[in-house]
Amino acid sequence: MSRPDIHDVTPVPVRRYGQQFGAVVLIVFALLFAQNLATNQNIQWPVVAQYMFAPSILSGLGMTILLTVLAMVIGLSIGVVLAIMRLSDSRVFQGAAWAWIWFFRGVPPLVQLIFWYNLALLYPDLSIGIPFGPKLFIWDTNAVITPFSAAILGLAFTEAAYAAEMIRAGIQAVSGGQVEASATLGMSRSQTLRRIVLPQALRIVIPPIGNDTISMLKFTSLVSVLALPDLLFSAQMVYARTYQTIPLLMVATIWYLVLTTVLTFAEHAIEHRLSEGSPPSKRSFQKRLFDMRPFRRQKEFSA
Amino acid sequence: MTMPLLKVERLRKSFGDHEVLSGIDLSVNEGDVTCIVGPSGSGKSTLLRCLNHLEKPTGGAIFLQGEPVGVRWRGDRLYEMSFNEMARQRQKMGMVFQGFHLFPHKTALQNITEAPIIVKGTPRHQAEAEGMALLEKVGMPDRAHYYPRQLSGGQQQRVAIARSLAMKPALLLFDEPTSALDPELVGEVLAAMRQLAEEGMTMLVVTHEMLFARDVADHLIFMEGGVIVEQGNPREIMTSPRHERTREFLARVLPQAV
Predict the structure, then answer these.
(1) A177 closest CB neighbour out of B53, B90, B99
(2) Chain B interface includes A181 (CB < 8 A)
(3) How would you list the strands of the sheet with B18-28, edge to edge?
(4) Tell me, how does this one assemble (chain A) (predicted)?
């Protein structure tokens, strides 16, 4: 047997038999699942199609989007304030922000929603007045707390707690040199924060915020316990009447998947655009993200 | 007698128990270039950072144009300045850092125009015209719209110098401006600094570039162990140092044929 010259031949690639076998198994499962989806009469695809764009479902979809947007906007706004408080020199500010984060990260959103909705049982009326003195304005709690406002409070406050930690980590990932350079140019603290630190911090916080938005979209389905007509509750209303449970849940599932897919693409697009600037190091951000020590002594530049 | 632009009296700074500056006295006249040299750990950078209160001095006094820095008299009581009051004084003392610290999310020109626009309220078009003139001065008008990461270290440092100049400071502090640069990029930054010196800018430069100190500085300060060991005319000190410690330092750092 004569071997060919080693320079004339290409070696046979390594065969990964285990991987090939696994792939075949997975493909078989996928085909079975697809066939089942297509042929299972219980799904009732015609019913799914009938309700996909039904007015009640679409208005539920609108409510879900509205809740997501409002909860994120309010949550992020409070989150920025909490993050700055966490980084304050004052122990009182640090402590207050820490307490908020501790509470709203610790209590499940579902419990909070029910709690907010039942606020009237705790405080029959809400008032603004002089502390320990007379009340100037009084509202009936039941008039203020609707299912909608209870949902926004619960979702936004929870989001604020999570956003605060991410934004704090983002701010800390911006190098101290940036703050010093701003100081030597005569910028005030708030100018430095608004013009130099936050724009850089928010850049690295965009990907986790994007993830949070997707989570929030899913969390909004909790509001169905308050009988708020979001996507899930609208579907439930229909099948409570028609008993077409599975087709209506399919409608809701498909819409949730559509929305999360759109959000995922949007997040990738934003991230891609931002990566053209040069944000502070992601590693530094990740390192600081899980730093949850309360009442940490801040080493800041002195002035 | 004219008042020095900057006067430092008995300045001390400690970090915990460690005293880094043990009583510094110096003055800088308008238009002078003063270089501070010395071994690492001698307190040179800390001295510079105390002048604009990036570090708060432990003791002593600093006067800029006769005005105490970081503190203010009200009647016969002395008060610390708040950060934002301090900001007004910092405008008069530009600073160039070893690590450049350009704003990465802004172009070269935006780095330069940022502070004049938001701190001084300069109209944008005027700030941009002045910013372009400054880029011209440091030799890189064609890089106005580049982001810092698209520039070499030497170019970044030149933009940083232009950024400091944009606030029209009375005094420019340089904290080892060429120490983070690749050797072949040092020259362009030193050339820009030399040009500034010739135009009469008052500069206080912490540096390891002995030849720059010899050729450009009007005044040389040698520091070691938190004190000024020797100061005076750079050529005199380099050719005939009076202190043993100065002599040892110069023997280590001076190129053979000075």
Answers:
(1) B99
(2) yes
(3) B18-28, B6-15, B59-64, B67-68
(4) The complex is composed of two ATP-binding proteins (GltL), two transmembrane proteins (GltJ and GltK) and a solute-binding protein (GltI).
Beta carbons of B104 and A189 less than 8 Å apart: no
pLDDT, tens digit (0-9, with 9 covering 90-100), for A133-180 = 788 788 888 888 889 999 999 999 999 999 999 999 999 999 889 999
Nearest by CB to B101, from A178, A199, A278: name it: A178
CB contact under 8 A, A183 and B54: yes
pLDDT band for position A123 (cuts 50, 70, 90): confident
Q: What is the rounded CA–CA span in Å between residue A239 and residue A15?
A: 52
What order of strands is seen across the sheet that includes strand B93-96?
A: B93-96, B171-175, B203-206, B33-37, B219-224, B227-232
A chain contacts of residue B151, beta-carbon cutoff 8 Å: none
**Domain span including residue A253:** 44-128+136-275
Tell me whether A195 touches chain B (CB under 8 Å): yes
pTM for this predicted structure: 0.80
Q: Phi and psi for A175 in degrees, rounded to 5?
A: -70, 150
Token reading at A116: 């907010």
Helices A91-106 and A147-173, packing angle to 10 deg:
130
* Identity of residue A159: E
Is A223 within a domain?
A: yes
Is A18 a member of any domain?
Answer: no
Whichever domain contains A192, its CATH number is 1.10.3720.10
Say whether A188 and B55 touch across the interface (CB within 8 A).
Answer: no
| CA–CA distance, A224 with A299 (Å, rounded to integer) | 46
Residues A52-94 have pLDDT tens digits of 999 999 999 999 999 999 999 999 999 999 999 999 989 999 9
Q: Answer positive or negative: Cα dihedral of A69, A70, A72, A74.
A: positive
d(C-alpha B101, C-alpha B112), whole Å? 12
Cβ atoms B13, B46 nearer than 8 A: yes
User: Does A294 reside within a domain?
Assistant: no
List of chain A residues whose C-beta atoms are within 8 Å of the C-beta of residue B93: 184
Asked if residues B177 and B191 have their Cβ atoms less than 8 Å apart, the reply is no
The answer, for A189 touching chain B at a CB cutoff of 8 Å, is: yes
What is the number of residues in chain A? 303
Bridge partners of residue B63, in order along the sequence: B7, B68
Model-level ipTM above the cut of 0.90: yes
Is the Cβ of A188 closer than 8 Å to some Cβ of chain B?
Answer: yes
- Distance, CA of B28 to CA of B30 (rounded, Å): 7
Q: Cβ of B119 and A195 within 8 Å?
A: no
A3 within some domain: no
Q: What's the rounded Cα separation, in Å, for the pair A210 and A262?
A: 11
Of the ranges A141-150, A183-192, B68-77, which one carries the lowest mean pLDDT score? Answer: A141-150
